[in-house]
Amino acid sequence: MRRDREPFLESQLRNGNVTIRDCMRGLLLSEGFQQGYYQFNSNYRMVDQVVNCVLGRPVH
Fold first, then answer.
1. For a Cys staple, 41 with which of 29, 32, 36, 46, CB 3.0–4.6 Å?
2. Closest by alpha carbon to 27, among 59, 46, 60, 54?
3. What contacts 12, CB < 8 A, 6 or more positions away?
4. Torsion sign (Cα): 39, 44, 47, 53
5. In the prediction, which pLDDT does 31 show?
6. Cβ(27)–Cβ(12) under 8 Å?
7. 3-state secondary structure at position 2
8. What is the per-residue pLDDT for 52?
9. Which residue in 1, 9, 8, 7 sits closest to 37, CA to CA?
């Protein structure tokens, strides 16, 4: 979604100024991500969502 985007990080990644790892770290620590995931989910649900989103695989 549009509100989940971080244009500054995207431009930094596109220009080669940051690595994919740094971009993902920035997204996970961003205010938008914290408001969308951390504040509205239990710890278990949040971990499940992050692992599915970032790693692309289910939690075992």
1. 46
2. 54
3. 18, 23
4. negative
5. 86
6. no
7. helix
8. 83
9. 1
56: left (phi over 0), alpha (psi -120 to 50) or beta: left
Helices (H), the chain: 7-14, 20-28, 31-33, 43-50
**pLDDT tens series, the chain, 60 aa:** 556 688 999 999 999 999 999 998 898 888 888 877 777 778 888 888 778 877 888 877
Q: Which two tokens stand for residue 9?
A: 């990080």
- Which tokens in the block code for residue 47? 């971990």
Structure tokens at 46: 């949040």
Tokens, residue 31: 């205010």
Residue at 39: amino acid letter: Q
